[in-house]
Design goal:
505 residues; Phosphate ABC transporter substrate-binding protein; alpha/beta; 2 domains; globular; D-Maltodextrin-Binding Protein, domain 2; 20 helices; Phosphate-bind_PstS; three-stranded mixed β-sheet; transmembrane
Length: 505
C-alpha cells in the first residue's frame, strides 16, 4: 500500500509541475506601424527571451496591412483601418480575402514636436499651442513663428519672425491619417483648404490623407521623412521645425513636445495618465476599431487630445461576432507562436509602456486580446484578473513614468494672465525627457469604471477567473481529473482487493 501511495503522489506531483505539451513554436514575422514600433521592440525582445520567436519591422501601417493581405508577413501593426485604405485607393481586397481581426495592443499619442529659440537665441521648451492653432499650422495657414495665434498662448511675447518648417512622414502612413483626423476636427476650414490645395479634395469627408506628397507639390513648406525615427532626428537637429510623431520618439531623441490645450482649457503633454484619460471617450466599434471624435472633446482636465489605440492584425477562425474572420495559419506552429506572443503583450508586455511613452491597455482591452487569442486558437478565452495578469491597470496603476510634469505657466498665473501681462516665461519649462513618478490612475475626473472600460461604460468587462500563464490552469486541472479516474482509481481498487484477500480467513 505504501508503494501505491508513493505512486499516486508521484503522478499528482508530476501533473502539478508539468504544463500541457505544446506545439513547437514556428518563427513569425510582423510588420507595419511605426507608431507602435518602440513598444513592439520591447515586446519582441522580451518575447524572444521567453523562447517566443518573433520579428517585427516598421514599414508603415498601410504597407503592413498590404503585406499581411498577400501573406508576406504573418501579422501587421496598424492604426489604419482596412476600410480607410480602401477609401483612399490603397487597396484592402487581399486583406479581406485572407481575413483578419483588429486587436488593440497599446494606447499611444502623437506629440507635436518642435525646435525653436527665442529672440535671445535660447532654446524654447515651453511652447503652448491650442488645438485650432495646431490645425492651422499643419494645414499651411499659419506659416511664421511670430503669428499672433502662437503669441497669444505663449505669454504674449512673440517668437522670432522665422518661417515654420513642417516635418511629416513620406510615403503612406497610419500616423499621418491619425494626426490629420485630429486636424480635421480642430480646424475644419483650414483642413478642407489644405485637402483641396494638396489635390485631395475629392476624398470623402470621412477619409483622411495617408500620404502628403500632394502637400509638397502644392508648395506647402513640408519636409517629408522616411520613418518616425527620421522625423524626430530631423526636428532635433533643425531649428524652426515642427512635426508630428508618436510621443515615444520625442522621449527617445529628447525632442521637445508642445503643451496642447484640451477641451477643459488645461494644457497637457502626452504622458500615460493623459493618454489614459483621453481614451475613456474613444468610441470602440464591435470589431474594436476606434472612432476618436469624443477623445478630441473629452472634458477631463487630464486629457491629451491627440491619443489613439494601436492594433495588431491577425488571422482568426470564422466567428459570429467577426464577419472579417476567414481562416487561421496553415502552419499550426505559427498559430502557437502568435498565441504566446499575444498572451505576453496582453499582460507582461504592458508593464513598461508608460516609461516608453505609451499608456498600458485598460483591463477590458487586455481581456479583448485574450478573446482574440481564442478566435485564433479555437480554445476558450482565458479570463484575466489581478492574480494572473501583470498589466499595471489590473492593479490600479499605469506604471512608472505615467505622470505628466506640471505646466510651467501655471506657477506664473496661467496662459491668460501671462498673455495679458505680456511678460512670457521667466525660465524654460521641463524637458520632455523628464522622468515622472508612478501614478495610481489617470487622476481626477476619472473613475474606476472609465479606466476599466477604455472607451465605453457599457463595453465588455473581463470576468475574473483563476489562471496562471504557463501554470497549472484549467487544462491541467481537467487532465489531472481524467488521469485520476483512468490510472489511479484502478490501482487503488486493485490494492484494496489484495489487502482484502490477505485479511480473509
Amino acid at each position: 500500500m505504501r508503494r501505491l501511495a508513493a505512486l499516486v503522489c508521484c503522478v499528482l506531483i508530476g501533473l502539478s509541475v508539468s504544463p500541457p505539451v505544446a506545439l513547437a513554436a514556428t518563427p513569425i514575422l510582423g510588420g507595419g506601424s511605426t507608431y507602435v514600433e518602440p513598444a513592439m521592440a520591447d515586446w519582441v525582445s522580451n518575447a524572444n527571451t521567453r523562447g517566443i520567436p518573433v520579428q517585427y519591422t516598421g514599414t508603415g501601417s498601410p504597407a503592413g496591412v498590404t503585406g499581411y493581405g498577400i501573406s508576406t508577413i504573418d501579422f501587421a501593426g496598424t492604426e489604419a483601418e482596412v476600410s480607410s485604405l480602401e477609401a483612399a485607393g490603397i487597396g484592402g481586397k487581399p486583406t479581406r480575402e485572407r481575413g483578419f481581426q483588429y486587436v488593440p495592443d497599446v494606447a499611444g499619442a502623437i506629440a507635436v514636436m518642435y525646435n525653436i529659440t527665442d529672440a535671445g537665441g535660447n532654446p524654447v521648451n515651453y511652447l503652448h499651442l491650442n488645438q485650432q492653432t495646431i490645425g492651422r499650422i499643419f494645414s499651411g495657414e499659419i506659416t511664421r513663428w511670430s503669428d499672433p495665434a502662437i503669441t497669444a498662448t505663449n505669454g504674449g511675447k512673440a517668437l522670432p519672425d522665422q518661417p515654420i518648417k513642417l516635418v511629416g512622414r513620406g510615403g503612406d502612413s497610419g500616423t499621418t491619417a491619425l494626426f490629420y483626423d485630429f486636424v480635421a476636427h480642430a480646424a475644419p476650414g483650414p483642413y478642407q483648404n489644405f485637402m483641396r490645395r494638396s489635390n485631395m479634395g475629392h476624398f470623402l469627408p470621412s477619409t483622411r490623407p495617408i500620404n502628403l506628397v500632394g502637400a509638397v507639390q502644392a508648395g506647402i513648406n513640408y519636409q517629408l521623412m522616411a520613418n518616425s525615427d527620421m522625423i524626430a532626428g530631423f526636428v532635433r537637429n533643425q531649428r524652426w521645425t515642427i512635426g508630428y510623431d508618436e510621443f515615444a520618439y520625442a522621449k527617445k531623441y529628447d525632442v521637445q513636445a508642445a503643451w496642447v490645450e484640451n477641451a477643459a482649457g488645461k494644457w497637457v503633454q502626452p504622458y500615460a495618465e493623459n493618454i489614459a484619460a483621453a481614451l475613456t471617450r474613444a468610441n470602440l466599434r464591435p470589431d474594436l476599431s476606434q472612432e476618436l471624435s469624443g477623445v478630441y472633446t473629452n472634458p477631463d482636465p487630464k486629457t491629451y487630445p491627440i491619443s489613439a489605440y494601436s492594433y495588431l492584425m491577425t488571422p482568426c477562425r470564422p466567428a459570429p461576432d467577426r464577419d472579417t474572420c476567414r481562416t487561421v495559419y496553415s502552419d499550426p506552429g505559427k498559430s502557437e507562436t502568435m498565441v504566446r506572443f499575444m498572451e505576453h503583450v496582453a499582460c507582461q508586455g504592458q508593464v513598461n509602456m508608460a516609461a516608453a511613452g505609451f499608456s498600458p491597455l485598460p483591463p477590458n482591452l487586455s481581456q479583448e486580446m485574450m478573446n482574440s487569442v481564442a478566435r485564433l486558437s479555437g480554445r476558450p478565452a482565458t479570463q484575466l484578473n489581478a492574480g494572473n495578469c501583470n498589466n499595471p491597470t489590473f492593479h490600479g496603476s499605469l506604471g512608472a513614468g505615467a505622470s505628466s510634469p506640471p505646466d510651467p505657466f501655471e506657477a506664473m498665473g496661467g496662459v491668460d494672465k501671462l498673455t495679458k501681462g505680456g511678460q512670457g516665461p521667466a525660465t524654460n519649462g521641463p524637458a520632455t525627457s523628464q522622468q515622472a513618478a508612478a501614478t495610481n490612475g489617470p487622476g481626477a475626473g476619472e473613475d474606476a469604471e472609465d479606466l476599466a472600460n477604455g472607451g465605453s461604460k457599457d463595453w465588455r468587462n473581463a470576468e475574473p477567473a483563476a489562471y496562471g500563464e504557463g501554470a497549472f490552469g484549467e487544462f491541467g486541472a481537467w487532465a489531472a481529473g481524467v488521469l485520476l479516474v483512468v490510472i489511479v482509481t484502478p490501482l487503488v481498487a486493485r490494492g484494496l482487493f489484495r489487502r482484502f484477500r490477505r485479511s480473509a480467513p
